[in-house]
Please model this.
Amino acid sequence: MVNSLKKDVNLRMMFKCALLFLILVGFVGNSAITTSYDLPIDVLAIVDDEYGANAPEIISTFRSFGWNVTIAGLKETVISCNFYGNTPLNTNVLISNIGDITVYDCVSVLPGLSHVNLLSSQIALDLIKDAADANLVVSGWCTGVRVLAYADVIDGKNVTGDTAFIADYEAAGATYVGFVLPVIDGNIVTGVKSNAWQGHMCCAIGKAIGIFEDDLPVMGEVTVEFLYPTHPDIVTISVELSDASGIQTPKIRIYELNETTGERLSDYPAYKEDLIQNQPGIYGVEILMDIGLYTVDIKIIDNYYNELAIEDLVQIEISSETTEESSWSVISLFLVCILIPMVAYVRKMKQN
Model:
């Protein structure tokens, strides 16, 4: 039963993958990043004391895009806000030691509680002003937009930012457009919700620099394996994925089907799983599943939010016969590994 089940699943899967391959080759093509810059991009990330909990994550997200990040501050070590546990963060360069700002493609002021040191440092404000005047992309995250206002780089620009400082933005000559997704106005990029909209902000910075790609992620081979004979109800799903800008965590949703009609029993998935990258280009997950017939949907989003969503990627069947065979296999293994040695031990004792 298990062998025939695996063969049936594999046949269905091969057909779907062949169809998907034709679709992807015909309509997607090879994903590529379009840019007038030489990759990778160099970002100067400016931090201050009482930096926000999202600042280290933003730096990691920059790097996930393949960008080089230099952390700059007025001190060699800055301390986070209380919410982030007063955590120290070492800078790579002092702002006072930066000579030619044009070696960077972007200057980004990361979020923080007050930015009190930056706001009172003419050296820091002049650096940001020089970057904007040199037509580098200058970005402010949430409260960091206030620093851009003090640096006098948002005059005549549309901006978003922390609502507590709207008066500062308007006093600097900017138009506050609301608490919205990142705003690009020329070489100035502003954003809010540094956690939930972090990826959107990075995309906006990339687009302002001149880096973008609008191709869908490319999916290659899909495999479904059962841990037979011991656990045929444990299923491993692996998917080969690639994209020029990088892939966010792929997600699968598994729906139970009516075994007679093949229709979904519910609009809500029986299982929701993230696919984890376990080797370059291969994403997978191991799932313990109940008896039943299932179909798998997948959603893949790249770092520029191009989305590939496929329904009914493959069907998986877990039957009572396979789990019964599994139980018998475990019992047999117990007899071989435990009972036979025990019998041999008893016989040896009788001989003695």
About this structure: The radius of gyration is 28 Å. Helices lie at 2-27, 55-64, 116-119, 122-133, 144-150, 166-171, 198-209, 320-351. DSSP finds eight helices and 19 strands in the chain. The chain has two domains: 2-31+216-325, 42-209.
